[in-house]
Amino acid sequence: MTAQPDRSRWLPDTLATLALIALWALYFWRLFTPSDADALSLREGDFSGQFVAFFSYQVERLGAGEVPLWNPYNYAGHPFLADTQSAVFYPPRLLTVALVNALGRTAPGELYAALQSEMALHVLLAALLMYAFVRRLTAASGAPRLASITGGLIAALTYAFGGYLASYPPLQLAVLEAGVWLPLALLAIFEATRAPRPGALCLALAGVALGLALLAGHPQTALFALYLALAFLGWRVWQAGARRWRVWLPRFILSAVVIGAVAGGLAAVQLLPGLEYLRHTSRSALPYTEKVHGFPPRDLLQVLFPGVVSQWSPLYVGVAGLALALIAVWRRAAHSVFFALAGLAALVWSLGAGTAIFDALYLLGPGVSWFRGQERAAYLVAQCAAILAGLGAASLIAGPAEPRAARRLSRTLWTLASFTAIAAGLWLTLWLGSDQARYEAAGDVAVFATAIAALSALLLPRLLGGRLRGAWALLIVALVWMDLFSVTRGGPNYEPVRAGDRLVEPAYLADIRADLAPGARVDGLRGIFENYGTLYHVPDIRTISPLRLEGVERILALPDDRAWELLAVQTVLIDWEQLMAPSVIVGAAQDALGPFNIHRLADPRPFAQPVYRAEVIPDENAIYARLGDPATGLDFIRSTALLAEAPGVDLPTDPPKTPGTAAVTQFEPERITIDVEIPAPAILTLALPAYSGWQAAIDGERAPMLRAYGGLSAVALPDAGTHTVTLAYHPATFTVGALISVATLALLIGGVGAARRARRAA
Question: Where do the structural domains in the chain lie, given as residue ranges?
Answer without folding.
Answer: 13-180+287-495, 506-601, 608-730
